[in-house]
Design a protein that fits this description.
Layout (H helix, E strand, L loop, with lengths): L8 H12 L10 E3 L9 E3 L3 E3 L20 H19 L1
Antiparallel strand pairs: 1-2, 2-3
Length: 91
């Protein structure tokens, strides 16, 4: 699942569970995402109930981890595999 940056995976899962859990007054609930609305009021339960989340304006976004580069040995084996594959297709 991919959710807003302000929520962790577990928090977003809880939001989806809350929005889609049936109640006696509505048997077919759904989560509505208004992409044009501000982040704080973007998520709704059945068009009627706005699920407000913290828009993160008071906090800086958590830093994203850098992607690790493959080591030189891995690059060598990848290159060797590509050369081998091309060689096999040319034969």
């Amino acid at each position: 699942m991919v959710g807003p940056r302000q929520l962790s995976k577990n928090e977003f899962h809880e939001l989806v569970e809350y929005a889609t859990s049936p109640r006696p007054d509505d048997m077919y609930p759904f989560l509505y995402v208004d992409c044009f609305a501000p982040v704080k009021t973007r998520f709704r339960r059945n068009y009627t109930e706005t699920l407000e989340i913290d828009d993160g304006s008071s906090q800086a976004a958590p830093p994203r981890g850098k992607r690790k580069r493959p080591s030189g040995q891995n690059c060598f084996f990848i290159l060797l595999f590509l050369i081998y594959t091309i060689f096999i297709h040319l034969m």
